[in-house]
UniProtKB/TrEMBL annotation:
GO cellular component, as recorded: outer membrane-bounded periplasmic space
Family under the similarity heading: Belongs to the OpgD/OpgG family.
Name listed for the protein in its UniProt record: Glucan biosynthesis protein D
Biological process per Gene Ontology, one example term: beta-glucan biosynthetic process
Keyword tags: Periplasm, Signal
InterPro entries: Gal_mutarotase_sf_dom, GH-type_carb-bd, Glucan_biosyn_MdoG/MdoD, Glucan_biosyn_MdoG_C, Ig-like_fold, Ig_E-set, TAT_signal
Pfam hit, one: MdoG
Signal as UniProt keyword: yes
This protein's pathway: Glycan metabolism; osmoregulated periplasmic glucan (OPG) biosynthesis
Top-rank taxon: Bacteria
Span of the signal peptide: 1-28
Residue ranges constituting the Glucan biosynthesis periplasmic MdoG C-terminal domain according to the UniProt record: 40-533
Example GO molecular function: carbohydrate binding
Organism for this UniProt entry: Herbaspirillum aquaticum
Length: 542
């Protein structure tokens, strides 16, 4: 039952929103306090980011560190935004917004604003800040969060799947489908209703030997009310960091049973030189899989949010690069121009390959589709060593060819697809498994520097081969020698499921870059498989 305090606050908010041309029911949040109205437009947000880049970086206002330190993992887990105060809880649109609280691991305050107006000149668009108060949250009476002052800010936000179903229900919000939390990180569920990997607004100097990585922050978000019944929400964001500023527009669509699509329009401005500027970055976790079997690292057969990098390059070739947990930090670059798309995918969807209730088999894939021509550059893959699933150790991103110098500006548009499979799959057979083992011949001594590779492909292009015809495996290696090459249909009765096997002999510790595809009579039948083999790491496993 709403209290008198909630009623008075709602009346005040209703009056303010009516002045902005937004119906009182739009907030449907009976306790939110709003600041004064200010003009807003995407152009003005871009201009603001441009002006900020011309001045030295200023960190966000400090929140009492001694209080944040007390809001540890356990204390933070006991803090939950009240559903009665959710933004847009009763419309317009289908999706309400709830906010994350600050804490030990989410220390940067983020300011939230609601937009109102038509944006067509009839009613000017204005923004009002949602002021932070601890009574927006359910938390224990002795929670250290009560010690934060009013107006401290939030840590992030999430859109919920649906809104008011039964006003008498105690907790009427279902699962969330997109969340922004920490630096410029955000993520969405796919059509299998599971979170997994994350996207980022920007990646600055990832894995650079001469400098630490920088993590710019989304410091302000602006929420545009959706049309009634719309499945799309629009959010604007301001990015700020020591080396960069930016203005973003996110149009995010929750597709019925089909995952989440986003269209992103961003303008970036560099304060200083950046050695590695990562655009449209994705971050994931890969610990181990069926590729290389370790000796008792964990009880599960596989642990990863993504198992490979897929690229559709400007020449029309589809590439598949299985991920590694390398012996040391590795950076791989795939040069291209007129890129058509890339993504970190989770192709293995078999529960028996994971055996875990956290359901790695349901983790979404993330595909990046450029809108317009991004010119020359590289899809870069960064792989870091990890010994646990709690660390994100994979980054994939687009890095422009031109150096990122202070004063440079970028305008970029792209689409993100969060779903179980890539949205533009190759018509050719695709790689479904990569396995390594000891090389050599059965029944004979196995030489220590020889590794056997078994690479599986499946697809209609292989299913159409005449009976008795075998595809040819076309293999190249950056060093070492290839032997014992063989292709065969898997003895599982599945049409179009073939594997290519070969032995690689390579000494030393430097990685070997491998490339393989299947063809028949000069015609490619499969996507191109790429792999980075580490001989030294393999000796440790076998």
């Amino acid at each position: 039952m709403p209290s008198r305090r909630h009623f008075l606050a709602a009346a005040s908010a209703a009056s303010a929103l009516a002045a902005l041309g937004l119906a009182p029911r739009a907030l449907a949040a009976q306790g939110l306090r709003l600041g004064s109205a200010q003009p807003f437009s995407l152009d003005s947000l871009i201009a603001r980011a441009r002006d900020m880049a011309r001045t030295p970086y200023q960190a966000p206002p400090a929140v009492p560190a001694e209080v944040l330190d007390k809001i540890d993992y356990e204390a933070h887990g006991k803090i939950r935004f009240k559903t009665a105060d959710a933004l847009f809880a009763q419309g317009p649109g289908a999706f309400p917004v709830t906010f994350f609280h600050l804490g030990k691991f989410f220390r940067v305050p983020v300011r939230m604003f609601i937009l109102a107006g038509q944006g067509d000149g009839t009613v000017p668009v204005q923004s009002r800040e949602v002021s932070y108060r601890d009574d927006y949250f359910d938390m224990p009476a002795d929670s250290p969060a009560h010690q934060l002052p009013a107006g401290s800010g939030f840590a992030g936000f999430r859109f919920q799947e649906s809104r008011l179903a039964d006003q008498k229900a105690k907790d009427w919000l279902t699962n969330d489908w997109v969340a922004f939390l920490g630096a410029s990180y955000f993520r969405a569920i796919g059509d299998l209703y599971q979170y997994g990997l994350s996207a980022r607004g920007i990646a600055i100097d990832v894995a650079q030997a001469d400098r630490p990585e920088e993590f710019p922050d989304f410091t302000q978000f602006f929420f545009e009310p959706s049309a009634p019944g719309s499945d799309t929400v629009v959010v604007y964001a301001l990015l700020d960091g020591p080396s960069i500023t930016g203005a973003y527009r996110f149009a995010m669509q929750r597709k019925q049973g089909g995952g989440v699509n986003m269209e992103i329009d961003k303008s970036l401005f560099l304060r200083r030189d950046v050695a590695r500027l990562g655009l449209a970055p994705a971050t994931s976790m890969y610990w181990f899989s069926e590729t290389v079997k370790g000796t008792g690292a964990d009880w599960r057969p596989e642990v990863h949010d993504s198992d490979g990098l897929a690229i559709w390059n400007g020449a029309g070739e589809h590439l598949w690069r299985p991920l590694n947990n390398p012996p040391r930090t590795m950076s791989s670059a795939f040069s291209d121009q007129h890129l058509r798309g890339f993504g970190l995918l989770q192709r293995d969807r078999d529960f028996d390959h994971y055996l875990d209730g956290v359901h790695y088999e349901r983790r979404p894939s993330l595909w990046v589709e450029p809108v317009g021509d991004w010119g020359e550059g590289e899809v870069q893959l960064i792989e870091l060593r990890t010994d646990d699933e709690i660390h994100d150790n994979i980054v994939a991103m687009w890095v422009p060819k031109a150096p990122a110098r202070a004063g440079s500006a970028y305008r970029l548009r792209y689409r993100l697809y969060w779903q179980q499979d890539e949205p533009f799959p190759s018509p050719m057979a695709r790689c479904v498994a990569t396995r390594l083992g000891r090389g050599g011949q059965p029944g004979q001594p196995r030489p220590p520097q020889v590794r056997k590779f078994m690479v599986e492909f499946k697809g209609e292009a292989l299913a159409g081969l005449p009976f008795g015809v075998k595809p040819e495996a076309v293999i190249t290696a950056s060093r070492g020698s290839i032997s014992y090459v063989y292709t065969e249909a898997l003895p599982n009765g599945v049409p179009g499921h073939w594997r290519a096997q070969f032995d690689l002999t390579a000494s030393g510790e430097e990685p070997v870059e491998l490339r393989l595809f299947l063809r028949h009579q000069g015609q490619a039948l499969s996507e191109t498989w790429l792999f980075q083999y580490h001989p030294f790491a393999a000796r440790e496993v076998y």
